[in-house]
Specification:
Length: about 325
């Protein structure tokens, strides 16, 4: 059977499952990292969200350090650090320290959104100006902080200098595609919740890419939802957890990650269904044969360099099995 030849990685928002607390969510995050490391996944990224009682991913760098400590070789990084909330120097020092303790295992994915509402963004207090607009300068500052000694300015990140931590630009619209292309950096599109501009963003990035000291050709990653199971029917049932997750977003409600339900039409109305579906329509879902067919079709159209999967599945063992099935598919098993 033909292999799709594609590195696969994992994104984790570190959700709290219904009936559990923050400590169990963090333990589950580590447990999943250990499982996908054994399966041969490329990297394991942790998101940044604030003032969200259903997720524990606010102190992203601490969670990354905790995951590095409990794994052996998988790359661990941020998906992403929301740069408007942070001083680039502090980010460089934190990630530089982690890269010193765990060499060649740390990734830094950078986003330009605050990852929260504006009141919470103000409470994070990085600056009174709109630091979204300084994003390109902040990215360049980080590239310098991680670069060689002879290219440093007066202010330096110790540890950090010379660590050459790989930087990835994250995007959910077309804006960051232009920046990633101009800087010659890898680009990661957030199709798992904002698929609308995916095709356009991929085209912009590839068409405008300028080779750099970091990359000689475009490196396009797409993050999407994956719900793989033994049968199509089981996958559809497991996916109702993901559908309830997106319904949370649509309603602005604060439910924890909920178990599957038999009939979503008893849970949402037609408008909510449509809105949730528009956020999650880039999803690989079904049995191994079905997901293989979907992924083959996706790759024939987009031919991305790496796939990052996020799986909102309530049962941790079913979640691991979903990642196992995806890895078997890309390995041609």
């Amino acid at each position: 059977m033909a292999t799709i030849h594609l590195p696969v990685s994992v994104l984790n928002l570190a959700p709290i499952r219904k009936g559990q607390g923050p400590k169990q969510a963090i333990d589950a995050m580590v447990d999943l990292a250990q499982a996908v490391e054994k399966m041969g996944y490329q990297r394991y990224w942790i998101a940044e969200h604030h003032n969200t009682p259903t997720l524990v991913s606010s102190a992203t760098s601490i969670l990354i350090k905790h995951t590095l400590e409990h794994t052996n070789h998988i790359r661990v990084g941020s998906g992403g650090v929301m740069l408007p909330n942070h001083s680039p120097l502090v980010v460089a020092e934190q990630f530089g320290t982690m890269a010193t303790i765990y060499p060649n295992r740390v990734d830094l994915g950078l986003g330009r959104a605050p990852g929260t509402d504006m009141m919470t963004a103000n409470a994070l207090r990085r600056s009174t100006n709109d630091s979204v607009y300084t994003f390109p300068d902040d990215v360049n500052a980080l590239l310098t902080y991680f670069g060689p000694e002879d290219q440093q300015n007066y202010v330096r990140a110790y540890p950090g200098v010379g660590t050459n931590i790989p930087i990835f630009i994250l995007g959910s619209s077309t804006d960051s595609a232009y920046l990633a292309a101009r800087l010659g950096l890898p680009y990661v599109f957030a199709s798992h919740f904002a698929p609308r501009y995916m095709e356009e963003a991929i085209s912009i990035y590839r068409d405008r890419f300028q080779p750099s000291e970091y990359l000689d050709k475009p490196y396009m990653m797409v993050c999407l939802n994956v719900i793989a199971a033994e049968t199509d029917e089981e996958a559809k049932w497991l996916a109702t957890t993901m559908q309830q997750f997106f319904l949370n977003v649509v309603r602005g409600s604060r439910n924890q990650l909920l178990p599957p339900v038999e009939n979503m039409d008893e849970v949402w109305n037609s408008m909510e269904k449509e809105m949730a579906a528009s956020m999650s329509n880039v999803t690989l879902m079904g049995s191994k044969a079905t997901v293989r067919q979907q992924l083959t079709g996706f790759q024939e159209k987009y031919n991305v360099e790496e796939l990052m999967a996020v799986s909102y599945i309530y049962d941790p063992e079913k979640q691991k099995r979903s990642y196992e099935i995806l890895k078997e598919i890309v390995d041609g098993k």
